[in-house]
C-alpha cells in the first residue's frame, strides 16, 4: 500500500498519465493473451474439428471403395500406411501414432492429424500457412481492431479528463500564486474559468469565488478591528494614564473623587468599546434568548440610563407613545440599539429637545442638535466614522452597530438629518403587536 501511495504521488496531471499508462498496459496484456487464446482455439478447435471430419469422410468412403483416393489439395495432403499399401510413408512421419499436433517438416511445422482403422494409419497434413491465415482472420484481425478502438477511446477519455483536470490545475494555480498577505482579492480572477461547461468544475469555481468573497470580508473585518481598535483605544488609555499620574502625584488632592470617577467612566467606555469591536468582528451574532419585550418600558429605561451618564441640563426630553408596542426579540440587542441612538442624540444636542415617538410599528428618536450634511448622513453608519470633530465623545461605532443589528434582525432603519435643525432615527418593527393606547410624557 505504501509503495502504491508513493507511485501515485505527484501532480494531478502526473497521476492521470500514470493511470492511463497502467490502463493501456493492462488492455494490451489482455489483448495479447486474447490473441494467443484465439490462435489456440483456431488450431485446436476449428482445424482439429475440420481434420477429424475429413478423416471420417475418408474412412467411410474407403470402406465402400478400397481405391478411394487420399486427400491431396493445396492445403491438405493425406498419407496412408499399413498392410497392402504400396506407397511409402515419408520419413518425417514414421513412428508417429494416432493423435493431433504439429510435426517437423524441414523448416516448417504443419498440423498433423493421425487416425487408425483396421491396422491402417491415415496421416492428414494441414499446411502451416493456412493455419496462420485462419488464426489471423479469426483471431488477430478482430482483436487488433478491438484494441485500436480501445486505444482511441482511451486517448479520447484521457484528453477529456486532462481538459477537466486542467481547469482544476488552473484554479489551483490561481489560489497558489495569490499573496494573501497583500489581501488584494480583486486580483484573484476566475473569469477565464467561467466558460467551462463541466458542471462539477464550474461548481468548484463558484465555490472558490464565494469562498474568496467571504475571505475578503473576514480579512477586511480583521484589518478594521486591529487597525481601528489600536487607534481608538489610545485616547481612553491616555486619559487613564494622565489621571493615574495625577493620583500618584497628589494622593491627598480634594479633587481625588472626581479623578477616580473620570477614570471609572473611562474604563466603562473602554469596556463598551471592546464589546462593540468584538460584536462588529463577528460574522454572525451568537445565540441570544428571545422574549416578549414592551418597547415603551425598554426605551424608557435606556433613556434614564443615558440621562444619568450624559448631563444635559439645557436639553428637554419628551416621550410620546401612541400605544404600548410589544415585539419578540433579544432584549439585550434592543437595549444596545436604543442606548446608542439615545446616547448619540444627547451627545450632539447642547440645548433643545430629544424626543421619542412610538407608534403602531416603529420607534423614532429625534433631536434638535447640530445635524448632519447629506454626505455625513450617507457615511454615518460606517464603523469609526465621526460626522463631527468631537474626539472626547464616542468612538464612531454607535450608529454602525445599530445598523448592523437592525439588518441582522430584520428591523428597517431610517435616518433623516439637516444641519442646524437636528437628526431623527426610526426603527421599524414589522412584526410588533399593538397592545393599548397611552399618552405623552415630558421630562
Description:
The chain has 443 residues and is α+β, with helices and mostly antiparallel strands. The chain is 53% helix and 16% strand. It folds into 3 domains: 1-82 and 93-177, no CATH class; 233-281; 291-442, Histidine kinase-like ATPase, C-terminal domain (Heat Shock Protein 90). It has helices at residues 2-7, 12-64, 128-177, 199-232, 234-249, 256-281, 295-309, 331-347, 374-379, 398-409, and strands at 76-81, 99-102, 111-117, 120-126, 291-294, 315-321, 325-329, 352-358, 362-367, 413-418, 422-428, 433-434, 440-442. A 6-stranded mixed β-sheet has the order 10-11-9-8-6-13, with helices on one face. A 4-stranded antiparallel β-sheet has the order 1-4-3-2. Strands 5-7-12 form a 3-stranded antiparallel β-sheet. The radius of gyration is 49 Å and the shape is rod-shaped.
Summarize the structure.
This protein has helices at residues 2-7, 12-64, 128-177, 199-232, 234-249, 256-281, 295-309, 331-347, 374-379, 398-409; strands spanning 76-81, 99-102, 111-117, 120-126, 291-294, 315-321, 325-329, 352-358, 362-367, 413-418, 422-428, 433-434, 440-442.
